[in-house]
Write a sequence for this structure.
């Protein structure tokens, strides 16, 4: 993550995140880096649909695609970028090997990630199949995948 933060500082770019299943793990990783405050503006943990919608995610998209979808991750990334006026917004939603009775879907092991680049009006997306690991380890696994993607973007 230090490499990502250093590149953001060098390029005078900012970043924000809206996390769901990772519960702030990405924000924690970012803020573990000295000088992250120069580029990291805000993080929201929107663990339930109600607060995704309150932050600006379109409920119609949640209803159409389910909260566990790349479409919702894209909405989250753009909404957080717009809310903070940051160059990059990151949206993370999905499940970490635990079915959600309030939002039933076929897969309980997929995490959807979107990084919105405001200046290019472009979404970098990926889906990650989490491993048969404890939740804390799967969160680290997802964050590492995001860091790898960020290195190619910023």
């Amino acid at each position: 993550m230090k490499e990502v933060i250093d590149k953001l500082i060098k390029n005078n770019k900012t970043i924000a995140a809206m996390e769901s299943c990772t519960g702030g793990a990405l924000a924690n990783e970012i803020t573990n880096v000295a000088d992250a405050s120069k580029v990291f503006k805000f993080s929201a943990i929107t663990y339930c649909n109600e607060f995704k919608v309150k932050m600006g995610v379109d409920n119609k998209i949640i209803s159409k695609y389910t909260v566990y979808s790349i479409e919702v991750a894209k909405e989250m990334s753009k909404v957080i970028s717009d809310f903070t006026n940051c160059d990059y917004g990151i949206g993370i939603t999905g499940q970490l090997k635990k079915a959600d009775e309030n939002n039933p879907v076929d897969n309980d092991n997929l995490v959807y990630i979107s990084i919105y680049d405001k200046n290019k009006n472009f979404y970098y997306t990926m889906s990650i199949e989490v491993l048969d690991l404890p939740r804390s380890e799967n969160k680290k696994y997802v964050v590492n995948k995001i860091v790898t993607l960020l290195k190619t973007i910023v």
